[in-house]
Amino acid sequence: MHGRKRIEVTTAAIVTISVIIAVFGMVFLGTTKAARAGETGADSTPALDGSTTGPSAPTVQPATGTVGDIKNVVVILADDLDWPAFNQVPRLAALKQQGTTLSNFVVTDSLCCPSRTSFMRSQFVHNHRVVSNVKKTGGGWEKFQSLGLENDCLPTWLQKSGVSTSLVGKYLNGFPNATPTDTYIPPGYDYFVTSTSKNQAYQGINYTLNENGTLKSYGSAPKDFMNTVLLKSATSHISTAKTPFFMEFASYNPHTPAPFDSKYAGTHATDTVPRTPSFNTPGINEMGWLASHPVLGPNRVENMDRLWRKRLRSTESIADTYEALQARLRATGHANDTLVIVTSDNGYHAGVHRLATGKQTAFTEDAVVPAIFIGPGMAKGAVISKTTSMVDLGPTIAKIYGAKTPSFVDGRDLMPLLRGQEDTPWRTATLTESLSRTLPGDPDYSPLEAPEFHALRSENWLYIEYLNKDVELYNLKTDPYEMNNVQASTNPVIVSQLHAQLAAMRHCEGPSCRIADAMPNGNWISPMPQVTVSPTESATPAVTATPSAAATTPAMPSPSSSVQ
Fold it and tell me: Cβ neighbours of residue 75 under 8 Å, at least 6 residues apart?
């Protein structure tokens, strides 16, 4: 699309969504407050403490801290780390008392490379267009580079502002695009250490690292375990890094095959996959792709538990990483001026909904990941339940350093929430997409993965539209384990609002995303205009308004007004 036409379409999207918000905004704010005032009983969101006896709410403490004097930021980015595994590693679970937890932190795609690109570009997948892990299916490092995205992303924004930048660990799937002898360092990094061994890197042994332009190979001795080697590099760099500095420590753990440090060989001997209500159990009103899955037999479950124990041992390295980096920050006098963020590129499912092991669904286990902020001004033990997204990390980190972000950024600055400003205008939902299929040979390949989809997630709802036209809707307040698809029985007005917001979100770009993500989506308790549209229709929904609203109620945004 030519630049002028692209600007016109984006502007039209902003205007359309703005009108909707203007018309419905007063009602939305009023009814939301009324709904909050009328809530009774305990919240039924899944426990953050790893409870397997049933849903229970975490004790939500307000984030009353101030930002404080943050000079440096360290992001510890795990690979395929879900909340259940996080909570079964006591040292990680304890981190929730050391900082502020975002309990509804949602990835843009529960697949490695698209999610990591969203972190680097602060864009949803439909905007950055790296939709998979490999070039053949429209993703991977080669797609990222061919689009020129490496020249305009978080590390380049920070470096231009005088920040010392580093990456230690996994960069993007498929890097480097040539041979293992490639010593290429992408733009934006003052210090860069990553594996050139591609899939072999997931084994944790017998790999080669590009250590800031110098290749070095490692074997299979305990001292060569990759996370150990990467940690040594990271801690050494912190000792000499100029301030302010930014570091991304991107572990390959606990990604399958879940290698672990030999010192953890005897740990987690009796742990199993949490037996939540959704474990190996059919749901209600399942769609075809999910209904086709049989109940897992005893041997499959036993093998799943065996892999799960390996994953927990592998996850211990994430705890090692946090402890080692914090120790070095203390030793260098930076413990009190450095924000440490612990999170993951995506989650992981094992046995829920009768799914074996994997990811690439919109379910909580895959799409909602740990996110703990520890450091100056971060209230200890605080839990923020508002819907946040991977695309928010870039604007937040850039704001800390005073770096400029481009207009294409889709995310929001998290600092007002982290400061405890609870009245900050915020989104009502965010977007998760899956726009590709994995192929045999990809470490994330699964022959039973879900169809491609677009999904809207809020504190109350999970609404999914699949490419095959199936639709799922889960009420997260009454059904936190996403077992009952209520799309057919929910008030059509609510379903239409969710459909309209998803249509706007999946076509938003930059500023229009911060309008679309604030649209009404089912938090109403007052009568609303009747929307005569099927949730699966792609045409512009027609609104049959009451006489008093007929003159001012616009049509909902059309999926056909896509920004290509």
Answer: 246, 247, 248, 249, 340, 341, 343, 393, 397
What pLDDT does 179 receive?
65
Whether the link from the prior residue into 58 is cis, omega within 30° of 0, is no
- Are the CB atoms for 404 and 99 separated by under 8 Å? no
| Alpha carbons 143 and 136: distance in angstroms, whole number | 9
Pairing of strands 208-211, 191-195: antiparallel
Residue 15 half-sphere exposure toward CB, CA atoms < 13 A: 7
Nearest by Cα to 507 from 117, 73, 127, 76: 127
Q: Considering the chain, what is the average pLDDT of its residues?
A: 84
In this structure, which amino acid lies at residue 358? G
Say which residue the tokens 């400029």 belong to: 404
Alpha carbon distance 266, 254 (integer Å): 17
Nearest CA among 555, 491, 549 for reference residue 523: 491
Q: Where are the alpha helices (DSSP H) in 109-251?
A: 112-121, 125-128, 140-146, 154-160, 226-240
Q: In this structure, what are the phi and psi dihedrals at residue 361, rounded to the nearest 5 degrees? A: -120, 175
How many CB atoms within 10 Å of residue 36? 9
Residue type for position 103: S
DSSP code at position 190: S
Residue 423 clears pLDDT 90, i.e. is over it: no
Cα distance between residue 221 and residue 227, in whole Å: 13
Instruction: Please indicate whether residue 265 or residue 534 has the higher confidence score (pLDDT).
Output: 265
pTM of the model: 0.84
Torsional sign, CA 357, 360, 366, 372:
positive
